[in-house]
Amino acid sequence: MEIATSRKLGTLLSLMFLWIFPGDAQMVLPRKRIEVINGQMVVLQAWYAPTSDINRNTIIWNFMSNASTLIISNTAGVPSHGSPQFMKRVGFTEAMPNSNLSIFINNTRESDSGRYLCQVIIPEATALTGELTLNVKVPPSPPVCTMVGKPVLKGNVTFSCKSKAGKPVPLYRWTKTSPRVRGLLLSYAE
Ligand SMILES: *[C@@H]1O[C@H](CO)[C@@H](O)[C@H](O)[C@H]1NC(C)=O
Ligand SMILES: *[C@@H]1O[C@H](CO)[C@@H](O)[C@H](O)[C@H]1NC(C)=O
Ligand SMILES: *[C@@H]1O[C@H](CO)[C@@H](O)[C@H](O)[C@H]1NC(C)=O
Ligand SMILES: *[C@@H]1O[C@H](CO)[C@@H](O)[C@H](O)[C@H]1NC(C)=O
């Protein structure tokens, strides 16, 4: 009963929406912030409800870093690939032309982190745009640790550990195993 009511309300709202913005469909990007571990595959989801013949539309995905670089595009079912950064790693998840604009990126890299812009160019109509952010995280590499100072009674020693790779910057936790000593001072260093 409640579901039926909310469905009706949903239909009513979308009808109102169409009435306010006639002919202008919105692009849907269900996940605007995506996190992935480097090396994994990721799907950037986007779709829209076309109000005209989709065969005439052009789909463009851009990666927005310092400059905007083309990732992939498709005009009337004819694909074209862009930047070498994404070459051979990206593709549309659905056969084009399609109202589902989702793309996949294989073997993600840290440098894929950033903003992604999807556009639909529709002849004689306003273009649709949508944006999402991808964060490619890197697991920390095993830390390299060093000791400075002489490990003598009442002497000071500094332990340092650092990982070459890791995004976000790795946090370290130091623990001392046996024997338990009171008043041991641990100095923290990255
Ligand atoms: C973006 O600009 C910064 C500083 O201007 C530069 O260090 C970096 O390499 C540039 N990145 C790309 C992908 O061009
Ligand atoms: C992406 O990875 C999938 C699964 O590993 C594979 O089937 C597909 O061919 C790859 N696509 C590209 C363009 O590399
Ligand atoms: C569009 O395609 C993506 C990837 O295959 C899928 O996850 C999503 O559910 C599809 N969206 C719709 C509305 O069918
Ligand atoms: C060890 O460090 C403490 C605090 O910084 C200092 O007061 C002390 O003199 C140092 N001891 C030696 C042996 O360097």
Automatic annotation (TrEMBL):
Instruction: Kindly list the GO CC terms recorded for this protein.
Output: adherens junction; plasma membrane
The record's section on Pfam families has: V-set
Q: Which Gene3D superfamilies match?
A: Immunoglobulins
Occurrences of domain Immunoglobulin (ranges)? 31-137
- Signal peptide boundaries: 1-25
Entry superkingdom? Eukaryota
Name the keywords, alphabetized: Signal
Q: State what protein this is by name.
A: Immunoglobulin domain-containing protein
Tell me which species this is from.
Synaphobranchus kaupii
Taxonomic lineage is: Eukaryota, Metazoa, Chordata, Craniata, Vertebrata
